[in-house]
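A protein record pairs a chain with a discrete description of its three-dimensional fold. The following entry can be read in just this way:
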Amino acid sequence: MGGHPADRTRQALAQAFLKRSVKMLERVSSSASSEALKSALSSPTDIGGVASLLSDLAPLAVDLAAVDPFVEAMAWGAAIKMELLTDSGGGLTSGQVSRALGITRQAVDKRRGRRALLAVPNGSGEYVYPACQFTSDGVIPGLEEVLRAFQIRSPWTQLSVLLAPAPALGGKTILDALKSGAIQRAIAIAASFGEQAA
């Protein structure tokens, strides 16, 4: 199978990319401060660590924008995502969620698929589940209805909306509204955000 010309081409491209990326990481890590390296290593994912390092170095001597105008923007976007995840109490793996809810990992994946749980991609082909959607009793009541009310599909945007103070709720978040039992109001706000953002 590996002898197919397309496979050989893909392998050669992968090797070339790997060689180039390793050189870039060697340059970046050798010029980074201890603080920047510690910050990168504290990231829960590999890609988050790289993004953290790039965003820390962006204002310094390494002029990322001059080298590649997209790199700085990507690093900035990744840093914002990491901050969102931190604000949500961190991210849980599907294994951690399955243990917390007393269900199988397959059941966790099914709930994610039917939008009963919010999961964000971590850049490594896996999903993490923001901790803010869980209580000691399980999932916050009404969360599934809120997630299904969103017309916007990006899980990162959904997380951002769930954590943002809403004027219609007197500055409380949608999650606050759900916890206090105002499920219908929370659903209405999630649905209206979808209309504005669509």
The mean pLDDT is 80.
